[in-house]
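#struct-help
A.M.: can someone run this one for me? Single chain, 129 residues.
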Amino acid sequence: MTLHLKKAAMAAGTALAFPLAALAQAKPELTTETLGTDAVENSTALAGGDVRQTAARLINVALGFLAIIAVIIVLVGGFQYMLSGGDTSKTEAARKLIVSGIIGLAIILSAWAITSFVISRLVTATTGA
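D.P.: on it. Structure tokens below:
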């Protein structure tokens, strides 16, 4: 046998042996303790919380996703700028992407500031706290 065949045989043997060793373990019984759902059960119930707080959480999550998209747009523009190779049309398109992403981030951050201010004022006005 050549050296390449021996390496291929060893790789195939280990690829077959490791999954069998992993499957030999006993499977745990699926209960609320093993799944961890009892710790999360009370904190994720939408019906048990305040409507204003639930709305604030949903708005924060939506704005967070939008911010991630804006950062990705800036990164794509940066990669396009680096890979443009000095071509002016490509660098101009990349600059437009970067500027658009930064403007989007500014809009998202201002929207987050406005909504957090409005919701905090709404909560203090309705609860008197």
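A.M.: thanks! The helical segments are 3-23, 32-35, 37-40, 51-82, 88-127.
D.P.: also worth noting: The radius of gyration is 27 Å.
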